[in-house]
Amino acid sequence: MDRSNARYQRLGYLALNVSDLERSARFYEDIVGLQRSETRGNSVFFRCSDRHHDIVLHKAPTPGLKRIGWQMEAATQVQTLEQHFHGLGIPTQRVSNREAVDLATDGGFRMREPTTGVLMEFYSHMDTASEVFHPGHTKIERLGHVVLASADMAETEKFFAENMNFKVSDRIENGVVHMRCFPNPLHHSFGIGAGQAAQLHHVNFMVTDMDDIGRANTRMKSHKVPIVYGPGKHPQSESVFFYFLDPDGLTLEYSYGMEEFPEQDPRAPRLFPMKVESVDHWGGLPEPDFAKVGAIETAET
Question: What rounded mean pLDDT belongs to the chain?
């Protein structure tokens, strides 16, 4: 496969594992501001867009990341990418018709990324919700990005670049690489941070107004939700950020603003030195619990 043929619409959805389903469901609805779509057994679907879902919470003993879904431009893209993984000797599994109905997608396939072990799903269509999404206390625009920690950041970057056609936007030396799922224009839909082991680092929701960041700061304090970083401003994407923890300690982020890239003739990636000012224009430092919880599920349950 010519990897230039791999074309994505967006980061499709994230499936997260939580220890207490109803407690987390209330948090993601009341505190984060997502809209509950439906409940199916031990899973609750949420959306922050007009699609069927953007987040799925699953009850599981260990909190963390269950699955990443990527929405591609066409079904032919899904088929070609699946054939490419077969050529690499990477096992794939088709999404069953029954689960595709539950997920409101056209099916697609799943595979495990070999350097982190994360399960990824590729599909080309998700049904729209029966009702338009109306933001509540926070004007969430979209599910923005997901960042993983990797024990071998270079190998993870190499796999995504060479086999999935992700493009590097910027790097912080020995710290993090920001990647976009081509040709999606957002500075990053995916990131890889350095870590001692593979795990979920954080999940991002993009908001439409700077005031959403300020109101979130007040809301989290009033509900005694741990704030673990920010408000601050990332020099790479020029996003204003605000990080907090869900009830299991998973790190979530609101961000406002982000650089966008043209499909043709984008600027070259930049390399930032490893220092505080490369992470936050305002010189802030994260709290100790920042990005500490987030096991990657190694087997579907």
Answer: 96
Token digits of residue 121: 């799903």
Is this prediction's pTM over 0.85? yes
Superfamily of domain 3-123: 2,3-Dihydroxybiphenyl 1,2-Dioxygenase, domain 1 (3.10.180.10)
Hey, what CATH class is 140-296 in? Answer: alpha beta
CA atoms of 32 and 24, how far apart (whole Å): 10
Yes or no: say if 202 and 252 are a contact pair by the CB < 8 Å rule: yes
Between the CA atoms of 198, 273, 241 and 54, what dihedral angle is there, to the nearest 10 degrees?
A: -40
Enumerate residues 6+ apart whose C-beta is below 8 A from 277. Answer: 235, 283
Distances (CA, A) of 156 to 85, 160, 162, 218, 237: 15, 6, 10, 37, 21
Cβ partners under 8 Å of residue 98, min gap 6: none
How many angstroms separate the Cα of 193 from the Cα of each of 17, 202, 265?
21, 10, 26
Task: Name residues whose C-beta falls within 8 Å of residue 150's C-beta, 6 or more positions apart in sequence.
Answer: 115, 116, 156, 192, 193, 194, 195, 198
Per-residue pLDDT tens over the stretch 226-264: 999 999 999 999 999 999 999 999 999 999 999 999 999
All structural domains of the chain with their residue ranges: 3-123, 140-296
Separation of alpha carbons 40 and 102, rounded Å:
8
Q: What is the CA radius of gyration of the chain?
A: 18
Burial 199-227 (b: 16+ CB within 10 A, else e): bbbbbbbbbeeeebbebbbebbeeeebeb
- In DSSP terms, 147 is beta-bridged to 191, 202
pLDDT at 301: 45
